């Protein structure tokens, strides 16, 4: 057998690359699913920051929202692969805690992104949107936009018992100045002004079905709160079919690039924008810092919410569609 | 064999209709908005996607098979037709034809694996369920396709008929049901589907090409999922890579609620429509009542058990 020089050189290069890799801090990112654009963006944000700081990101996800076992497996595999920091969006806020404790016992820093664990101090830190505040913003906007008219509200919620769904819903009602519950509650408040509530599962088609049924229940609905922008797009479809799209105000939360486009197109009046890219980038930066200095981050960091609307309302602080597009989900 | 009992319509056929009527009576008593032609046309529009998927599913279940991939194949079809139109600028009919071709191809793939390699349909479609899902996610980058050409929304447009606003998609769904009903009842091919479901061995011995019948059923089912994709795209005005996740099991639920036997060979296609409507009526009615969607899931679960139990008991009775 003849010696193959190019092959040898490649092998040497590969070896060099591997050893260079080993020197890089490894940071794990575990999202709820692989397919939600929100988490896709989060992954992009983590990757970009890691490239900048010379770190390596491993990512994994549960199979479906709520897949705790999948997240635990991913966490174990990442620790085995040498990750010293793991960023996680917990699918099940309680069930993930024992696995986190085990990881921390091995010297791994765990940062929750987007949603907290229960108890919140089970992780070293939390970088997330204040969902209640996000709701308050769109509630205040809707109130100003209705300008004293009596609100007849439909809410297209996530599904029962989900803290993020409850916080946005209750925050919205609070912002509107209606009877509501506080940020800790997992129940959905239902003051008299809310004439219809439907579960949209954050899904376009189900948002549409929910809105159709709500219009059936009360054709005079003039404000629609939606858990996210796909549900809002579905609601708009239903309103358009009924010829009511001009008379009904839709507000939402998320601030995804497609959602902001819908704000520009007049489908959604206002949305509270959150920043998954920023959450992930901050998490990676904290992980690199920990790898270099051994200093951990702690506590809750609000990653910010901005109200985006095509039409500013007096007394409500909002940014325009252009700003929203520039920042959508934390670009730049 | 010619007892009085045989002359009665089997419980499996009447049961679903009774359940649907009872549900309607209940919701009409709870909400004065429930009972209107407008509301019923709305429910029809809400079930049309699942309804058309369920036609393909019924054909497969009639042959004692099952198709777990139906919803995911539909989602793939929807993504293909919208992306082909938006990204490559293909005309609406061509893009839709491409979507139909992809779903039909998946049906063919399922059929080949079931008939040629003799794998159990449950396993085959469990595999293709994952394959179709992954391709959908990879190809779309998990992003919803928006700004689709207006022509793609046509099936979602409505016309008024009496007090109701009926969408063209609903007309298409009802047409497909009538066509399938006729084909299953009146054509030799239709009778062969029942025969294969009842006893594939006996059917083969009488000279009917069972494998061809089975393959044809899977191909037609794939075509149905493509047609459902057209309806889904038209209804929501977008290509949604996460569509089909609940429709997958909803379609099987509709077939079972409609009285088609999971053991094959017995069932009426119109029952499937009734089954789909039961699910739609509960979703609509409970929202009108202001009740959480979890109750709908609870009731659906109970009804599915009841439907299968009825089928089993009537089978025992017939023995």
Automatic annotation (TrEMBL), chain A:
Entry GO terms, CC: cell envelope
UniProt signal peptide: 1-22
A single GO molecular function term of this UniProt record: carbohydrate binding
Subcellular location field: Cell envelope
Keyword Signal: yes
One family name in Pfam for this protein: Peripla_BP_4
Xref: CDD domains: PBP1_ABC_sugar_binding-like
UniProt keyword list: Signal
Protein family membership: Belongs to the bacterial solute-binding protein 2 family.
Name of the molecule in the record: Sugar ABC transporter
Gene source species: Limnohabitans curvus
Automatic annotation (TrEMBL), chain B:
Keywords tagged on the record: Cell membrane, Membrane, Transmembrane, Transmembrane helix
GO cellular component: plasma membrane
Lipid bilayer topology: Multi-pass membrane protein
Ranges annotated as spanning the membrane: 41-61, 92-109, 121-139, 159-184, 213-234, 254-279, 286-309
A Pfam cross-reference name: BPD_transp_2
Subcellular location: Cell membrane
Any GO MF annotation of the entry: transmembrane transporter activity
Principal location class: membrane
Protein name, entry field: ABC transporter permease
Organism: Limnohabitans curvus
